[in-house]
Records
---
Amino acid sequence: MLGGLTTFSARFFKEVFIPPYEIEQIRKHMIELGMKTLPIVGVTGFIIGLVIALQLSPVLKRFGAEAFLPGSVGISIVRELGPVICALIFAGRVSSGIGAELGSMRVTEQIDAMEVSGVHPFRYLVVTRIFATTFILPILTVYVIFISLIGAYIAVVLVQNMTWAYYIDRVVFAVEFGDAIPGVSKTFVFGFIVGLVGCYKGYTAENGTEGVGQASTSAVVVSSLLILIFDMVLVKLSLWIWPVVK
Amino acid sequence: MVEIRDLHKSFGNNVVLDGVSLNVEEADNMIVFGRSGTGKSVLLKCLIRLLEPDSGSIKIQDKDVLAMDLKELNSLRKDIGFLFQGAALYDSMSVRENLEFPLIRNFDLGRKEIDERVHFVLEAVSLLEAVDKMPSELSGGMKKRIGLARSIITKPKLMFYDEPTTGLDPITSKEISVLIIELQRALKMTSVVVTHDLLCAKIIANRAIVLDEGKIVKEGSIEDLITSDEPLLKNFFSDEIIENKGSLI
């Protein structure tokens, strides 16, 4: 499967620069995928922020470091939790959807029909979707980070008496450029993985409706796994580029 | 119009086409008969390179199809219509969008011309009222008609039909077959039809071939094939005639 995915991604990079550029399709997919995922990532982000703050509060109190709560929560959300949680939810929602949609198009010969009518299905169906997932996930991640910080603030208010202005001031003080940039940048890679795996599984689906189900399920499993593996690599890389020194 | 020479295609160890040679002349309505799994659909798909043959040669309008690059192939495909077994309508598009899709993507036509063509093909298949429906709202027969409308909207010179009446009731099957032959005459197209529906073949064909185990075992008119004494053909056509409740004899 890895060989197939590599060949598929090589084909993407070969085709992506060849006109016609399907700008309208990319825009359509970005709006569709973004709107589809916005509520679920929002709710998840809010809960994650709230829970992390609630969990960290007694631990920091044990060490007499309650004042660091906003900063610690901010850093963990911006650097890791926001991007990864958002990517994993996005993979579950979008990768499976793309796998099922393209898989269904494959087994009902819609992709063949497109090819016969002189349209390049890879460019029209695959390139546009991968492009859309690559660029919509970072936007969603910024939104999730913001919502998570709101969730964390509510938790902070529950355990400490802190104003919003002071909370934000502490978060901004603690979170540096070197935290935000790698955190959000890696979601371009995660978005690419989600689109690539979903499209690959769907585009190469076979064996009728059973194959569509398999494409959808394995798209989620493979893309989630790849997100975690690449996260490991990208964290190491970002720490090398932006070392955390104070 | 179509010239096939010694065409071979296998999937692993499974030999599907084993040296098929065939000529389809201009204005021919050629039927390809055969039991399930004998390579009828594979033959059609090889003709437009939805599948790549292992060896052999295919010429359409004197152009070597297997030697073409993608650009040349897409240019040739504009002159070819293909009706898929399940109609293959794009689920996410309305009937109008399905019909407009090949025109917008391949031809530099104005809005007026596109609207006229959509109206013409929908009128031809008697489904003007379905223009704004989604494929999920259509019956099997309606989907086939819209599929047919989509394949002729580009005014192709050559039509390929893959099991055009499969899954339809006898009345709708007959209607689709009559519609195919009427459009055939009106648009002066050459066609290759894969089917095992004898009634459909009777209505459409002027020539037929029978494929068995990847080879052409018989070629001639429908009557020649039905009245043949060869055991394979006798067996095949007696089953088909029973399926059609004797409506052909």
---
Amino acid sequence: MVGITSYGGYIPRMRINRGVIYGANAWMAPGLIGFASGERSFCNWDEDSLTMAVEASRDCIKGFDKSAIDLVYFASVTFPFLDRQNAGILATALNLNEEIGSADFSASMRAGSAALIAALNAVKAGDYRNALVAAADRRIAKMAYLQELWYGDGGAALMVGTENIIAEYLGNYTVTVDFVDHFRGADRDYDYNWEERWIRDEGYGKIVPRAVKGLMEKLNVEGKDISKFIMPCVFGGAAQQVAGMFGIDPAVVADNLQNVCGETGTAHPLVMLVAALQEAKPGDKILVTSFGQGCAAMLFQVTDNITKLKDRMGISGSLADRKEENNYIKFLTYRDLVTQDWGMRAEANWKTALTALYRERKRILGMVGGKCTKCGTEQFPKMEICVNPNCGAIGTQVDCEFANLSGKIMSYTGDLLTFTLDPPAHYGMIVFENEGRAMMDFTDYETGKIEVGLPVKNVFRIRNFDRDRGFVQYIWKAKPILVEEEA
Amino acid sequence: MADGIKDKVAVIGMGCTKFGERWDVGAEQLMVEAYQECLEDAGIDMKQIDAAWLGTCYDELSLGKAAVGLANTMHFPYIPVTRVENFCATGTEAFRGAAYAIASGACDIALAIGVEKLKDTGYGGLPAIDSNAGALNGQTLPNVSAPGLFAQLASAYRAKHGVSKEDLKRAMATVSSKSHDNGAKNPKAHLRKPVSVEKIMSAPFVADPLGLFDCCGVSDGSACAILTTPEIAKSLGKKDIITIKSIQIAVSNAQELAYKEWDGSYFATTRNASRRAYEEAGIKNPREEISMMELHDCFSITELVTYEDIGISPVGGAIKDIMDGFYHADGKVPCQIDGGLKCFGHPIGASGLRMLYEMYLQLLGRAGDRQLKDPKYGLTHNLGGFPHNNICAVSIIGRQN
């Protein structure tokens, strides 16, 4: 038996009311009113598909033995790197074993489901035992595009394995059709989109049913057997219509999260699946469809183990960590759609020494410190000579993960001098539960709510963009846990 | 502990430019301005200088690397010239190099000069840290600035001593206001306007809780010293001989960064450097014996915390001393009598020598409107880096006996 053994989700904290976007653009695009309700998620300036995949994956692998993971797949159509394996950065950030398989999946809204199916097949074939599948997208639409309202940012992660399965994989049926509802040429920054009515009727309306029909016939299931029908599709009623064709109860059609999040690109089938798993009961049959140059349909059956998997943010948890940000200019800034004068301090040259990055990849990307095997002192970074003044042993340190430790603020400031896209830049000394410490950037902070002693958790974020060379630097930052969030 | 250099080295000449936005001159002209005053004060000829030390921090902004910038400017006759850099403690580091050369007998007359030309960046504040940070620092340092890192002291100090934001802010503002009063009397100071405590407190934040007036001036300038032995000083006809009583440096060792003990509310280096400096100088009770101080007041909170770490105010007692006027011009231990970094200004490589320049003038009774009555020991505290990772240099000078 093969199936899903764990799940995790991540939706960035910031949400903008679609009415705000509509209001700013109504003078030129009054037709946007049709999509102007609810809110959409969007990344902080230091988040992208990779950082979201890291957070969703951390949520997914919580409580698992990381050393058992031997395959990592990452799907996105908005990877930070076109040629540098993004799954490899993900694996390094998670401090996974390096003796593992890995691959990126891209170039279609179906990349996320393709990665999941590939992982299920790899484990089923016995080539790998535990596969981590992450998908995330931060899709950029031009101002006043319908897609600016349609899209949301987010990601999900699933663990695939053969033991302690929470949702057994029953099979998939896939059709591949070169239906071009939108495309993004290799030299372009934005999608080009065709008419929505055609996409709804000829695309979702005809291609999704081919996959669902094929799956039901292949697995010999009927519409009444389906406990949850997942069909990521922005068009209201489209999923219900497809469900109706197969006798699936309209009441089991999963919410497309359009009202609270928006469509998270190639991650969305997985995002909706995680949301469904968070509410699922043993025995539920979940049918997942994934549209994009054809359609994949997958069927899962939830097992009793679902009740044992607890303490995950998932999609519902990260939707609850919400900060309304209705400053449209800030939204545009964080999507690099406007040009401001950030001053000369923004001109700094951030060329990355790849040799140093490689040597220190565990420290920089994985937040791995050291533990002195002589005195037991845990320290960041890992040092050649133990920092404990009463020890000072040379060459005694073993790896010690700091990423998942909780910490508290020892000192802080909000700095208006240094350049950041989120002024004032907050940073300070964090003291961790193991008495190690680090001077760290903060993120997702709120000015005026930071104080000494406030708890923080570490998150993987963008440090800098090297725009001259197209490189992105990542670093771990401290995210203050505000008191109201704790409650 | 070794004997140290107490009274083994005499300061026979000093010079200092006007600090400020010296748009019309570069580092070379600034150095010559300080050097000329210094050479005339020493009453010697350039050819008598056996060795020289140059201190600059932001080499990429002015003279470039190495010591050739100084030697080329002065046309020294192929003598040994060394460039030193130790963050904002660079000026004292140049002074220490020259002092040790004299104390060791390696040379008879040595020159120390510091210079910084900061106002070629195009913006306020110190230059941003970027690719000059180093291959690894360029990927691991958080996005910090000097005011932001020093501002951390305030939050930790409040937490440690249970001080309210308002009380600490007022004490910090009093520190700055006192220095503005002093700087107003100094013709060479960058900033020469008195500023009220209320105005300081209501200024916009640079880095919470530091407002504009909690930060020192970013200036162009140069300062210079000529050193020799007390014996040679005497042979040159010097009457009031000023000697070095101690120079001590303490450097962070990563314990503040990575070990559990430091709480962020004080300078571990300053406590060590000052203790050793008093020992070297033979000072038992600094609160009673130190006549005046120039502390590294890059930010008001730095000066406040340093009052304690330098061993003058008790730990947790700085605010009371500040509000009592203990460090004002008419107080028991006047501090930043020349205006300090706050108002005299802070051309990094020159600052340590600028502090010594004021102590030297005061000890010789040449400080004009700012002259204190009969000072015995002048202390300078020159700090480079940041509270969690820094270089602290403490020097004490005084009359020969």
